[in-house]
Amino acid sequence: MPALLIDPHESGSAIVFANDAFRHLTGYGVDEVVGQSWNLVAGPETGRNTLAAVDGALRCGEGHDDELLIYRKDGTSLWGSLTLSPVRDGDGRLRLFSLVLCDISAKRQAERLLEEQVEHRTQELQTALEQKTALLHEVEHRVKNSLQMTASLVLLKARRLQNPEARKVLQEIAERVSALATAHRLLYASGDVSRFNIRDFASELAGELVMGLPKGQVNLNLDIQPLGVPASKAAALALLLNELVGNAVKHAFPDGRRGRLTIEIGRAENGLRIAVEDDGVGLDHAPPSEGSFGKTLIAMLVQQLKGQLTWQDMEPGTRAEIVMPVDAEETRFE
């Protein structure tokens, strides 16, 4: 191992001995090394902090380990590891320092090669991710267009039906399909196709439903956190909100009754909490009958989302609250 003995008591911590391995590594002769400072192996690219740390250890009589760029006599360089150790006599007095060098150029080259491979692989993965994101955007766009076209066709058919009950059924189907189309549109517009912006969806949905009523009949109150939920839950949540808000708008304020509709969405201890409350005429809170498809659909969606649904009579009005184990993160969407 290339090694030096350094006398810290000499000016500049002079070298007093250099072994053959050191002379072979650096190309310096004995007369060119002895009496010189240890940092004769330093060069323009050697780290200044490393040099200062070694000099500080020499002054304090302490050991030090480091890596530095070593320069040979001919100006070529290599990476070396440095181990500086104090040598004391039997009374504990500092006599010398031993400085051992080890050529780690191959190790550094392997590390650099590994870093390049990691960087190359990272770039490949980033490119693949961008391609996947672009594909997901395109899929969401096409699904949204197909759903919008389906809703338009169903509404067109509904307008041509003479049977009011059949027309109502088709109109409700079109509303549900439109809710799904809106969810896919928001996923397409989002910078993160893996998260669904539930605040934008609920705000847009509630605004459109309330606008279908006479102006000023219902005051809309929104208390919704900017949450992103997994895109895989978007369809179920979109349908669920459509049913909850739609039922309140359609049934809580009959005959021009005026009132207030409140929508609350936020994080709960075990996931996500959704509450829709009105001060309307109130609903039958008994288990839904077979003919009450809206309530049946709500119950099915809550079960699919593994949530718990409670209905509460507010006297006046109704409050529906759902707590479900859905991952909800506060997110800034583009």
Automatic annotation (TrEMBL):
CDD domains: PAS. Residues 138-328 form the Histidine kinase domain. The keyword ATP-binding applies. Keywords: ATP-binding, Kinase, Nucleotide-binding, Phosphoprotein, Transferase, Virulence. Its EC number is 2.7.13.3. Residues 1-61 form the PAS domain. Gene3D superfamilies: Histidine kinase-like ATPase, C-terminal domain (3.30.565.10), PAS domain (3.30.450.20). It comes from Microvirga arsenatis. It comes from the Bacteria. PANTHER family: ETHYLENE RESPONSE SENSOR PROTEIN, TWO-COMPONENT SYSTEM SENSOR PROTEIN. It catalyses: ATP + protein L-histidine = ADP + protein N-phospho-L-histidine. This is histidine kinase. Residues 64-116 form the PAC domain. The keyword Glycosyltransferase does not apply.
